[in-house]
Amino acid sequence: MAAPGVSPSLVNAIAAHFRTLGYRQHGDWLNGPCIYPERHAHEDRRGSFGFNVRTGYGNCFRCGSMLARDIAARLEINPYQQRRETHEQDTAA
Ligand SMILES: [Zn+2]
After folding, report:
1. What is the rounded distance in angstroms from the CA atom of residue 15 to the CA atom of residue 17?
2. Is the residue at 24 inside a domain?
């Protein structure tokens, strides 16, 4: 079950992104190179990172845990960008 405040559509978008990149799934985890390769020696080719498709949390052995929204921001994923904008715009200046 996703953590409170984590959108299932966002988790799904992140998971789809990692699958596209060839991350390997082990149970609830998609494992592959860290999304912050600059924090690692050799750009983390060994794959220290995992994304939990159930909870929406990421975890890296070096960088620690990550929130879905931070992962999405890093990957420039916006699950809402393909929807029509139906929300009222906040017009406050
Ligand atoms: Zn890392």
Report:
1. 5
2. yes
